[in-house]
Amino acid sequence: MSVSPDFRTDLATGVVDRAIYTSEEILALEKERIFARTWRYACTIRDLRNPGDYFTLSVADQPVLVIRGNDGEIRAFHNACSHRGAVLTDERCGNQGQVLKCMYHAWSFNLKGDLTGVPYDEGYGPGFDRGAYGLKPVACETFHDLVFVALRPTVPSLTDFLGEMADHLAPYVQGIEPIGRNSWIYDGNWKLWHENFRDDYHAEFTHRSIRDLLAGTTARGWNWGAAPGHSVLQWAFPPLDPPKYARALQRFSGVDFSDGTMPVGWSSMLAQGPPGPPEGFAGGEPPEIRQEVLAVFPNLDIQPGPKDTPRGMKAGYLQTVTPLGVNRARVDITVYSDVEDDDATRQEQLENLADTQGSWGKLSCDDTEAAARCQIGVRGEGGRSNLFTRGVAPGRGGESADVRDEYSQREFFRVYQQYLRDES
User: Fold this and answer.
1) How many CA atoms lie within 13 A of 243 on its CB side?
2) Which of 24, 89, 225, 360 is deepest in the core (most CB within 10 A)?
3) Burial 29-38, CB ≥16 within 10 A → b, else e
4) In order along the chain (424 residues), what is the average pLDDT of each group of 10 residues?
């Protein structure tokens, strides 16, 4: 598609043309110029422990399969038989043994993508070359425990694509493994969800549970747009108020918490591990507990547990948002834990995250409603632009920026606009 979108505003300024949420033409450009050209998170290396283990995803509407070979290598291919195009598996994940076999005509491929079996191949004549009909490879790289794929990467190296985010992300994604998954669909543009995880301006207003348990959660923190297109939000926890939270839950749900039982959820937000200050703390006032949300362009969000607690950095969730249409998107969330965690710890982590994250979660349901409301409004004539201009100092923010600032979103839109205008 050789066309450059004619935005009514310079998106990098934070004054964002609402057409990007409603235009079918822009969605087509996003798939062609962003999703097909950037590195896309696929799964973790521990989803692919054994030869034949695979994971599938859709990238720019193209089915992709990631699989571990007998040599230990992780490779990615277009999930389409070279004969007639049938997808080789329509399952999300599993194990294919030693062979990828098409259900249509039983063409078979080994774990390196080579065509190894063609029933009655003599019918194609003596010149038939199996070597010309292997699976088409897709670029695949790992960053510590995360696996990424790219159809036609503008930036060939994954590490270069991560840029300033690489060093910040690395400590969070080593020694982790997935322990649960959930997906849901919402009525809204995909960017509305990803923007939300670059935004700490909304938390105290949108989320009643945060307001009750963690009043003032955005009073201290910072906001950083990490080039190219990524971001980090960090905030410090205020004193927790579990009784207030329990009273509010009881008032709105009718469930009796008068026996002092802490509701499921939010214990993942408390100091994990033994009571008391972090290991190695020498005395005086204990350090504040901080938490971060990391966003990787274009559609990956990572929310680890508190970074100052014994196991918080190795417990959290990864989520991606995928456009299903201009006003419909799917969220896929993976809960992860430390590889050393026991079963009881993992079960607690699953229950905590399921209580807050997911289509029913006390946080995600609020964010889902916000996205749906925004989608309804941007289709109307109430305004031409969305505003992301909080934080007036030059640059991309950082530790001197307020956590409610919007450097994070502006960095996203700066790179988003570059990709959409690149006609090469």
Assistant:
1) 3
2) 225
3) bbbbbbbbbb
4) 76 95 97 98 98 98 98 98 98 96 98 98 96 98 98 96 96 94 95 93 80 71 94 81 72 72 51 39 54 95 81 85 97 94 89 79 87 95 94 92 93 97 88
Per-residue pLDDT at 259: 64
Copy the structure tokens of residue 17: 């043309």
Is the distance from CB of 401 to CB of 222 less than 8 angstroms?
yes
285: its two tokens: 């006032």
For residues 9 and 385, is the Cβ–Cβ distance under 8 A? yes
Backbone dihedral region for residue 126 (phi beyond 0: left; psi -120 to 50: alpha; all else: beta): alpha
Q: 261-292 burial, b if ≥16 CB within 10 A, otherwise e?
A: eebebbbbbbbbeeeeebeeeeeeeeeebbbb
Q: Count the neighbouring beta carbons within 10 Å of the beta carbon of residue 61.
A: 13
pLDDT of residue 105: 98
Percent helix, strand, coil in the chain, to 5, is 30, 25, 45
Spatial distance between the Cα atoms of 58 and 330, rounded to a whole number of angstroms:
11
Inter-residue contact 45 to 73 (CB < 8 Å): no
Element of type H or E holding 60? none
| C-beta separation of 375 from 188 below 8 A | yes
Residue linked to tokens 């004054």: 15
Strand order in the sheet with 300-304: 176-186, 328-338, 316-325, 300-304, 290-296, 230-236, 221-226, 397-398
Separation between Cα atoms, residue 217 and residue 203, nearest integer Å = 8
Q: What 3-state DSSP class applies to 59?
A: strand
Smallest CA-to-CA distance from 143 within 233, 43, 216, 62 is with: 43
Residues 402, 392 contacting (CB under 8 angstroms): no
Please, are residues 352 and 265 in contact by the beta-carbon 8 Å criterion? Answer: yes
Q: Which residues contact 172 (CB under 8 A, 6 or more apart)?
A: 294, 302, 304, 313, 314, 316
Domains of the chain in start order, with CATH, are 40-150 (2.102.10.10), 167-421 (3.90.380.10)
The structure tokens listed for 238 are 């205020």
- Distance (Å, whole) CA 192 – CA 368: 9
CA–CA separation, 413 vs 112, rounded Å?
A: 38
